[in-house]
Design brief:
mainly beta, Molybdopterin converting factor, small subunit, ThiS/MoaD-like, about 80 residues, globular, Beta-grasp_dom_sf, 5-stranded mixed beta sheet, single chain, Ubiquitin-like (UB roll), Mopterin_synth/thiamin_S_b
Length: about 80
């Protein structure tokens, strides 16, 4: 098991906690967290692990911080 701090931003916070600790299986990825939280994969624009841009399939490590952002609008 790995413990990961998950931080959600903007619209992902609607009806969810903005920050939560999750216990995940060894080898879990951001894709696994997104599925668990019922966030459509195509709505995730930015994935950061410990402040660095990562991909959906990157393995999470114990004590990582995963930040998920939807597309940012405005102009």
């Amino acid at each position: 098991m790995v413990q990961v701090n998950v931080r959600l931003f903007a619209t992902f916070r609607e009806n969810r906690e903005k920050e939560m600790m999750m216990d995940l299986a060894q080898g879990a990825t951001p894709r696994d967290v997104i599925e668990y939280l019922n966030i459509p994969e195509e709505e995730v624009a930015i994935i950061l692990i410990n402040g660095r841009h990562q991909e959906l399939g990157t393995a999470l490590q114990d004590n990582d911080t995963l930040s998920l952002f939807p597309p940012v609008g405005g102009g």
